[in-house]
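Local shape tokens:
==================
===
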Amino acid sequence: MATGSGKTATALTLASKVAEKNQPLAILIICPFINLCRQWLRELAAFGVLETVPCFEGQERWQARLEEGYQRLAVGLTPVLALVATHATFQSEGFQSRLRPRLATGVAHHLLIADEVHNLGAERGREALPEAITLRLGLSATPERHYDPVGTAAVLAYFGGPVYTYSLSQAIADGCLCPYRYYPVPVTLTDDEADAYAEISAKLARVFPRGDEADVDLEQAALRLLVQRARLLAGAVNKLAALDRVVGALPEPPRQAIFYCGDGRTTDAITADEVRQIQAVARLLGERHRLRVRNFTYRETSQEREEILRDLSSGFLDGVVAIRCLDEGIDLPELRMGFLLASSTNPRQFVQRRGRLLRNAPGKTRAVIYDFLVSPPDLGGGWEDAAFNLERSFFQRELRRIVEFCWMAENGPEALHSLHDLRLNYHLLADQ
């Protein structure tokens, strides 16, 4: 189901139907993040599920409550018990040893609901999936794992294939999600960045695995270069200047906005010091544009994150500056504007990020997305055929993401036309 189209409510409705015929029932809900777990606890309460055990933030906090909950199920004091755990807790030996999904324990039925189920395709996640639980429901807007056919196959083997899909275009047409306008913002590399980019591209052309040439050493060498390339593009210095221009040209300052950054370093537009991009963006927004913003990263405590989300929803904050922590699951319907300073070609990332912005809220008629993408440098015909063809294939993937955004945007043709010259340069006018 499309991000924001009601996966949680759908899952709990299905769980209530299961509970009607399968009691006593333990519902095990697993999520990637603590904030998402808390969101599920609120939804469970709204559905009338009162017996819940939050299984996160330390075993000593939930161990006794879990044992007590199972005892209450066993003696008939409650018909339904909901366990809400993070992936980290779920995969821990302490939690796994206390799960009781067998008839001999006195608990006849377990239902496993895995939110953002694609995350469980990683080796540790799939090893923790209990075979004894036969009632299983996986939720995801992007069930396939990018470049991981083994993990994707493991998730589908355990949960089964998709039983219901609800596309983004249908959700927008039905009014379950709001429409959006999309503005790609091309950014050029500096001379130094262009030189570094050309050097990486030339090396990639020599080591990128092709057919029978593929081996572990080549794959690892190519992966290292791809990581270098991605960091260079994500941290391009001119993105800060472009963001400065876009924000400064808006008729009104951004409100309830999210700014997605890369995890690399860049040059601060105010001090000219080299800092992490997230720091430079926060400083630019705060000092030059007088916006009230806070960073949302792994460095903030769980309580601080809750405060940030509350202040953003209320309008006390104008925006949050994040890297990846708000990619999945968190429900922030009040978000109205998104600025993508760094984007992956991984479909999951841009689908999830767009979904953060398209949830409906009172007074919200549409969302607006600014996507800062780096135009590959023109090296004056200095590309070798292998390097040009490889670079073309890389940009083609980026173009697919852009076309995907344009296809359902209110201003789609206009947005795509703004990239005409860039697409022409890479012979990609027909790729849409």
